[in-house]
Amino acid sequence: MYEKYESPLSARYASGYMLRLFSQRTRIETWRRLWTELARAEHELGLPVTEEQVAALNAHIADIDFDLAAVRERKVRHDVMAHIYAYGKAAPAAAGIIHLGATSCYVTDNADLILYRDALRYLRGELLKAAANLAAFAERYKALPTLGYTHYQPAQPTTVGKRATLWMQDLLSDVEELDFALDSIRFLGCRGATGTEASLLDLFDGDGGKVDELNRRIAAAFGFERCFDVCGQTYPRKLDSRILNALSSIAQSCCRMATDIRLLQHDRQLQEPFEDAQVGSSAMPYKRNPMRCERICSLSRYLMADAANAPMTAAAQWLERTLDDSANRRLSMPEAFLCADAVLRLTQNVTAGLRVNEAIVDRSLREYLPFLATENLLMEAVKRGGDRQALHEVIRRCSMEAAQSMQNGEPCDLVARLAATGAFGMTEEEMSALLAPENYIGRCREQVESFLTRRRDAYADAAAGSAELNV
Description:
The chain starts with 7 loop residues before the first helix and ends in a 12-residue tail after the last helix. A hairpin with a 2-residue loop joins strand 1 and strand 2. The chain is mainly alpha-helical. It has 20 helices and 4 strands. Strands 1-2 form a two-stranded antiparallel sheet. A two-stranded antiparallel sheet has the order 3-4.
């Protein structure tokens, strides 16, 4: 196994569920299930397919001779025909009716639709687990004041929990996009070489009602209520674009959150999970790098870039069918799902074990709070009879001096400077009493509580928890 390239998504990052779902075994078993249901519907609707042949196909869905199919494909250069051949060898009694009235896209495209639907449903659950983790985190820290940032410069305080709701809101919007993509999936059915159903119409002696019923029965067997209204040989490739857009949206949200955590970990305000024996650096043993958040950002960039494949493919489809989508989709679609799975596993792990260093959060806020509270100090001084315009100039001058002092490595002494002027009619202690951080967080607590209450139905059924990482 070490002599051949293996995708890191398979070897390192994706879950066992997603690897099995997009495995060659699951794909070909799905093809065989499609061939079986086609034969079943044809039998039930009066075509020359016997009940015994349907039973034979059903009995041999799992015993796939991949080596035989590979040898056959090298000879005929056609994967579907190779597997028809291998299926016929496994179920010789039904060999003559496999794929009756179908074209290759009957199995390839319908199988993809089944796999994509199941993968999206799985990712939806994983997405909600991460949201549930953030909900618990936001509730816990809804009132903990922290320094806010705009342009990554110190700004009006917020709370740690309020900031987490910004991340959570992004994830819940991704659930909505994912639901839209899921709702867009229809079954292709058995529509023929150019989507006209001519072959089936011929088999059913011109009875279009039976053609519709056949497609309805096959679709229902795989849990689909509708087929696409019209199509060429394939299902509309616009759907792939819609799906990858939803996966890209997940990457955007997770990358944004992970970037925020990386910035805050630089100041030691937050810390992602770090295990007892974990090594931060091969050269610098003291380091505690935000490896998991960095990996989220790295994989998210790959996923966002991969999502560009689908719109380019959708735009390049010729008339009823061209094959230049095939090789691209074999790579871009499964890899996107595996990558989204990996990103969400990491996001679950980080959000479940995110640590807040409350002392450092408090210290960082208090360092800048005197600047942020100057308006409140000004208002209080005016209440005591001060001149607003004169006080504004005193604050401006003292703030510039204090900032310069801090740039020279000195601690913030703005309150002492203001008190020393005597212009405010307050002692330094009285000014400091006005600097309680909780007085400057606005409605953060109420906003968190309101948000979690209003959105609880979206994540209430998800179990908060972590995901075990492979590496």
